[in-house]
Amino acid sequence: MSQLSQPHLLGIKNITTSDIRKIFETADNFKQVINRPIKKVPSLRDITIANLFFENSTRTRISFELAEKRLSADVLNFSASNSSVSKGETLIDTVNNILAMKVDIVVMRHQAPGACVFLSKHIEAQIVNAGDGTHEHPTQALLDAYSIRERLGDVEGKKVVIVGDIMHSRVALSNIYCLKKLGAEVMVCGPSTLIPKFIESLGVKIETNLRKALEWCDVANMLRIQLERQDIKYFPSLREYTMMYGLNLKMLENLNKEIVIMHPGPINRGVEITSDIADSEHSIILDQVENGVAVRMAVLYLLAS
Q1: CATH topology for the 138-284 domain
Q2: ∠ CA(294), CA(300), CA(305), 5° rounding?
Q3: How does pLDDT run across 265-299, given as a tens digit for each residue?
Q4: More confident residue, 82 or 45
Q5: How far apart are CA 263 and CA 143, in angstroms?
Q6: C-alpha distance across the termini of the chain, in Å
Q7: SS3 of 150, please?
Q8: What are phi and psi of 132, to 5 degrees?
Q9: Which pLDDT value is given to residue 95?
């Protein structure tokens, strides 16, 4: 059985291009499985996986849980809001108590950047980062790149613009690493107050005009404004943001080419993207959701082997 070059999936920065390609090839096989009448395979029977979510999540949590069950793993779900964490228990104690129940893989989402890296140095189980603060969200970047590959045939040479709240987005950082490793050109677009200072050092272009960014790209990945992570106001109002950076059908129709529209969710309809685009043939948003299960199955399978 093949394995990844790393014992954990802590971030895209840590893995190799051949790891990414291996995950995609494995996901291709699992995508066939989840489209069969019997959607289960016994690949991870007798493997126990704990989903530790210290931060709210709907899509990522359900997607991981479904991936684990499709692989026949035993699944433990843990939510911090109704656990002893609210009584002051530390992260290490929480995880060690769960590992005492003989857990093999931990899938963790945490509000602190680097929490998964910290944990990987203190426990024996393998860790999958399901999002750590404003740092990384590796499986989202993998499923995004996988979805581009599926729609356009390859990621290499494609021009991808990531639009919106770059500063507070873990999806943006993981996407930049992943797309660059696969040979895509990457641009970030948004208000200058929401673009981190030294982001050019990652080899990306910067554009503050959405129209110019759309004329340049093959793919536009629209991010939501992460109001829950913003401690100060970075722009005057949501209405003004929408006027400058909201994507609508008229803008797409004025382009002299077809572009692919993506969104990691949850969508704030009418803010960063209008409903008529989210539900149009330009959009691969629901493909991303379906591909998320296959890609997460591939990651768990390769780590467990």
Answers
A1: Rossmann fold (3.40.50)
A2: 125
A3: 889 899 999 999 999 999 999 999 999 999 999 99
A4: 45
A5: 11
A6: 6
A7: helix
A8: -125, 100
A9: 83
CA angle 178, 184, 185 (to 5 degrees): 115
**Tens of pLDDT, residues 30-39:** 999 999 999 9
Give me the residues paired with residue 261 across strands. 220, 283
Phi-psi region of 190 (alpha: psi -120 to 50; beta: other; left: phi over 0): left
In CATH terms, are 12-136+289-304 and 138-284 the same topology?
A: yes
Provide φ and ψ at 26, rounded to 5°. -70, -40
Distance CA 2, CA 21 (A): 12
- The Cα 118–Cα 12 span in angstroms is 16
Q: Does domain 12-136+289-304 have CATH number 3.40.50.1370?
A: yes
pTM (global) more than 0.85? yes
Kindly report the length of the chain. Answer: 305
* 97-113 tens-digit pLDDT: 888 888 999 999 999 99
3-state secondary structure of 69: helix
- Rounded-to-integer distance, Cα 147 and Cα 157, Å: 15
User: Which tokens hold the place of 76?
Assistant: 């433990």
